[in-house]
Write a structure and sequence with these properties.
- Helix 3 packs across helix 4.
- This protein has 5 helices and 6 strands; from the N terminus they run ββββααβααβα.
C-alpha cells in the first residue's frame, strides 16, 4: 500500500460497469475527482488512481444508476475538480447545460467573456476529469456537429441520443 505524501490527498478508486463501458471512479480524500472511460484521451496513469476501495463511491454509483435509468437529470455530488482557473470556469459552465441540450464551444467562450477562445474551451472540455457528471458530451461544434470527445465520438453520440430520448436499445459496445 502506498502512503500519500503529507498534503497529498489520499486517493481511492473503483471500476463500475455502465452502458458506455467500464468507468473508473476516483476519489481524493473521499471526494469524487475523476470518472474515466476506457481508452479515454487524457486518462491519467492507473497508478495515480490510488488503492481499490468502493466505499467512497456509494452515492456516485447510486446517482449514475438513476441517470442510466432515466430517473436523474441533475447530479448532486461534491466534486473536486483540479485544473487551471480557466478549466474550472469551463467545467462550471458545463454543469449549467441542461440535460438533453447542447451548447457550442463558441457559445461557452462567449459566456466566459472570451469570444475568441472556442479552441481553448475545447481543450479544457477535453480535459474534464469527471465524465458524464460534468457533461462535456453536451458540447458540439458551431454547426451542431459532433466534434471531439475524450471518450470517443461513438460514446458522445450514444450519450446525446440517450438524453434526447432517441437512443436505440443497443448492447454495450465498449
Amino acid at each position: 500500500m502506498t502512503t500519500p505524501s503529507p498534503g497529498t490527498p489520499a486517493r481511492r478508486h473503483t471500476v463500475v460497469d455502465s452502458p458506455y463501458g467500464p468507468l473508473t471512479l476516483v476519489a481524493a480524500d473521499g471526494v469524487l475527482c475523476g470518472i474515466y472511460m476506457t481508452q479515454q484521451r487524457h486518462r491519467p496513469p492507473e497508478e495515480s488512481f490510488g488503492e481499490p476501495d468502493p466505499r467512497p463511491f456509494t452515492e456516485t454509483i447510486r446517482q449514475l444508476d438513476a441517470y442510466y435509468a432515466g430517473e436523474l437529470r441533475v447530479f448532486d455530488l461534491p466534486l473536486r475538480l483540479d485544473g487551471t482557473p480557466f478549466q474550472r470556469d469551463v467545467w462550471a459552465l458545463l454543469q449549467e447545460i441542461p440535460y438533453g441540450e447542447t451548447r457550442s464551444y463558441g457559445e461557452l467562450a462567449e459566456q466566459l467573456g472570451k469570444p475568441g477562445a472556442s479552441r481553448a474551451v475545447g481543450l479544457a472540455n477535453g480535459k474534464n476529469p469527471v465524465s458524464i457528471i460534468v457533461p462535456c458530451h453536451r458540447v458540439v461544434g458551431a454547426s451542431g456537429s459532433l466534434t471531439g470527445y475524450g471518450g470517443g465520438l461513438e460514446r458522445k453520440q450514444r450519450l446525446l441520443a440517450f438524453e434526447s430520448g432517441t437512443a436505440v436499445d443497443t448492447p454495450a459496445l465498449f
